[in-house]
Amino acid sequence: MGPMADDTWGTHTMSSIDVVDGERIAAEQDDPTSANRPRRGRIGRFLASYPRAVWMLTIANTILWVGRGMVMPYLFIYFNDVVGIPGKIVGGGIAVSSLLASGFVIAAAPQIDRRGAQPMLLVSIVGLALTTLVYPWATTIPTYLLVTAVFFMFDQFYWPAVNSATVPLARPSQVAEALALIRCAFIAGVGLGSLLGGLLVTGGGIAEYRLMYTLSVGVLVVATLVVWRAVPDQRMEARSASGRAGSWRDLFADRLFMSISALLFIVVIGYSQLQVNIPAFLHREARISEGAIGVLFTIKMLVILAIQLPLAARVNRGVLGRLLAYSCGFFVVGLLMITFTPQLGLAAAAMVFVLFTLGEVLFAPITSIVPVRLSPAHLRGRYFAAQSIMWGAAWGLASLFAGIALDSPRPELLWPLLSAAMVVAAIWAWRLRREARLAPPL
Predict the structure, then answer these.
(1) For the chain, which residues make up each domain, given as ranges?
(2) 303 pLDDT tier (thresholds 50, 70, 90)
(3) Which residues pair with 89 in a beta bridge?
(4) Residue 39 pLDDT level (bands cut at 50, 70, 90)
(5) 11-25 pLDDT, tens per residue?
(6) Which ranges of 135-254 would DSSP assign to H, the alpha helix?
(7) Residues 361-403: pLDDT tens digits?
(8) pLDDT of the residue at 22
């Protein structure tokens, strides 16, 4: 795809950026004072290295996740502890809603390919804003279940929409890095939003939570306006070269993608334990406080923000099968290490977070690169949607395993079982290292 008006920063096209940047670097080399301002030059080159539209989408998503991060960690606390809905209803509603959302995504994803990713991204954000607005007033079991079901439909639809919107805005050689920017926006936004939400509701009741939800909606409205006004609707081809519109049947016929999706499903079940099970296990079995666990998550967030973007570029140039096997290896050791946290305490828990972080910074860009490498342009929305469904299903199954384990007298037995499954995934991934369709771009 050639340079377009959207692929600009300021008034320069992509090609003129390279020329101007080269002239500036040459001038700085001849300028004896340039050594006094290397930091500014690096920042300028970094900003100029991505199209303006990519940065605007990144900004919009940072704002979006600040709003969503304000309420995400406190949903269960609000409805169970503050409102008084039984925990099994709150958790069961989320699990069932995730399954229903998969059906919605299957039905809605073709609209990404037909109508464009940017309009569908707007639909998902507006849907999230509306459901967030009414969520704190859904204080009976029927209304809670109804709003939760609708909320998770838009929640799962967001990811294929935003990923599909990012790909055509980025230069072909920088797709992995652009998707990593969106991931960094998610991490930074959730971190800041969680902090703000906690400050708003600490020691409060229904009134404070309703204020938090209302402020969250205001932030989502700002994100909507940024996407609407500053992110172009740059569409991929809606039909194949032969003029035929794609279908889900075409995706299901892609045996390599379906096989890798099954592989990633296994990995996500193990990886997601860090969110759904490990904190509760560390608190209950290793006697580690919530505050210490929160510090570990904060450090993990800062490390990912520092290294994810440059590492994504390296992953994009690497052999995906080999790197995925390395990622699984980190998860294997991390899952086994959890078994020893009741005896070794915080030191072992810190090592668990280190190992999971190392695995995650490899695994996350791989999951974004796979649909880009394997999908025809006119089916990209469906490929991203299929991956979103895979994540949702794996997350739900991981939550089920976590609940069964935590209710059992020997919860530590889950970790060697998941480690064994991750060893199988590592071997499976290693066998994909010579797959031609996964080869890095020239």
Answers:
(1) 51-236, 247-442
(2) confident
(3) none
(4) low
(5) 333 333 333 344 443
(6) 141-166, 175-201, 206-230, 248-252
(7) 999 889 888 888 888 877 877 888 888 888 878 877 777 777 7
(8) 40
Q: Can you name the CATH fold of 51-236?
A: Growth Hormone; Chain: A; (1.20.1250)
Write out the two tokens for 213. 């939800």
Q: What is the pTM of this model?
A: 0.72
Please give, one letter per residue, the 3-state secondary structure of 371-390: HHHHCCHHHHHHHHHHHHHH
Using only C-alpha atoms, the chain has a radius of gyration, in whole angstroms, of: 22
In whole angstroms, how far apart are CA 282 and each of 267, 279, 405, 419?
21, 5, 13, 18
Task: Provide the β-strand partners of residue 245.
Answer: 239
Which amino acid does the sequence have at 356? F
Nearest to 329 by CA among 361, 356, 348, 307: 356
Domain 247-442 part of CATH 3.30.1490.20: no
C-alpha angle 436-441-442 in degrees, rounded to nearest 5: 105
231's tokens: 């992110």
Please give the structure tokens belonging to residue 276: 């759904």
Q: What percentage of the chain reaches a pLDDT higher than 90?
A: 34
Query: What is the four-CA torsion angle of 253, 259, 264, 270, rounded to 10 degrees?
Result: 130
- Would you say 117 and 66 are in contact if contact means Cβ atoms under 8 Å apart? no
Structure tokens at 92: 């069961």
